[in-house]
């Protein structure tokens, strides 16, 4: 992996400015990447609500004094952070959450989330649904990754998600030893309880791996009646492999999961089990040889000249390992056989995968499990292992004419495409090991041209077709209904169409992006306030959709029993100048700062200005000595 010494300021952090009411003066969050074994991310301003909130003479409490409210409390941390630093109109609103003046407001919000999550216990479904219901889907994408037979969230994936701009909560479960071993000698464990926390800091420095979290459970009874000083629980993760025996006796796995050790604890059965990450939405447009990345903030639109071929087929995925904050897949249809390349939007560096051979590559799309599908002549090829070593996992010829303009239909879990002459829609319904092809002829008399592109409506009701020769059309899922043309005075020559998770239709039209949303009567109107509307574009537009393995049909299992963290779990105070996280600002922190002097990617960049300099030195000198204790 290439070493890109680059400050990674996550997309969400680019839009933040700390308010006077907040407790941190640095620009958060802050990420840095030197190589795959020296990287990290921190959010010093992450909120820290306690879940144990007893009813007193002047303060509100929670049912059962909040002992079962870790899920609502950890989720409240994240939502209150967004409201305070990024979107004041979001509940519970902006506030100095460390102040006792906000105690009752915080308690009421945690209880409100508890009702939503049907406390208690809490699982991935509850947290995912709560975040999705409260965050604007045109501004945020919620990605939940759950331990299943295909993957297990772990330390590395959590770090990558953070460096890709995500803010996360995660659950750890207790996996108890049974004393049994499978035939391959791997131990068998059973799952018993879990706890939810909010990520505050994650880093790797050689063999040293650390995770710090805002832990809703506090061992300090005095803090039950006040907003306690912000603190962290620290874990030292290591990989562990085992089988899980389900309650019905079925053996599942083996899983390799991140086991979370903590200070002075040689053995613990806590394993990172699932994560929910909130990413800022962003779009990508193509103009000749340039790519424009547009974040969900009007001030952060910018150009990235990456040297892609004219009219490439592009697909954004969530992250490409630690070295690339954002990268795109480019299907190069020029030359003999074409090629698939991965291009780093930060550095412009390109990687071509020569071992992936194609005959006539035309289009590509990505499903919600992180596999890429490439149209290659009359065949469709599935490519797996995108985060490690891309490999061809499935090839099947499609009967009938070749297809193009491949698009992912998340609602129906299928791929959708137009055939070569735009006479029919081809639906590729995914099954366990491939897909089933269904050909849907367009109504007689349709005038869709050969340059048309297709996108699925987000509620599964049909498909949008952008044709530069005839306009924008909607094909209803009901085969008896004709094509419906979208008539709008501001639409001229639509060359591409995409649909956001929030239901906004984004059209590339005569070099400009136009966003359309429905009003209360279902009528489409130009949405000039949308972060993509009015942006300059070429013929192509893609929207970021981070892949997830969360599926309520599979993961809505009985809620787990909440687990009380041990009373001897060490809590550490926030200490901004403590670069090496040893609870002391001393010569070691000073040496790190001096060794990284003038670098733009370092944990010693304490004020978040993308440079290690005298301003950071002043922060260390001011905080010199032991970190505060309780």
Q: What do these coordinates show?
A:
With 630 residues, the chain is mainly beta. Among the domains are: 46-279 and 552-574, no CATH class; 578-630, Dockerin domain (Type 1 dockerin domain), CATH 1.10.1330.10. A hairpin with a 5-residue loop joins strand 8 (231-245) and strand 9. Helix 2 packs across helix 3. The chain is globular. Mean pLDDT is 80; it is low at 1-26 and 309-325.
- Shape from CA axes? globular
Average pLDDT, all residues? 80
Helix-residue proportion: 10-25%
Report the sheet-strand fraction: 35-45%
List the helices and strands and how they pair.
Blueprint: E1 6-8, H1 11-14, E2 30-35, E3 38-42, H2 70-85, H3 103-116, H4 124-134, E4 140-146, H5 155-163, E5 167-181, E6 187-205, E7 208-214, E8 231-245, E9 251-261, E10 270-280, E11 282-287, E12 290-295, E13 301-304, E14 313-316, E15 327-332, E16 339-344, E17 350-352, E18 361-366, E19 372-376, E20 379-384, E21 391-397, E22 403-409, E23 414-419, E24 424-431, E25 434-441, E26 453-456, E27 462-467, E28 471-476, E29 484-485, E30 494-499, E31 505-509, E32 512-518, E33 524-526, E34 540-543, H6 552-555, E35 571-573, E36 584-585, H7 587-595, H8 614-622, E37 625-626
Parallel strand pairs: 6-8
Antiparallel strand pairs: 1-2, 2-3, 3-6, 4-10, 5-6, 5-10, 6-7, 7-8, 8-9, 8-35, 11-12, 11-34, 12-13, 14-15, 15-16, 16-17, 18-19, 19-20, 20-21, 22-23, 23-24, 24-25, 26-27, 27-28, 28-29, 30-31, 31-32, 32-33, 36-37
Helix pairs in contact: 2-3
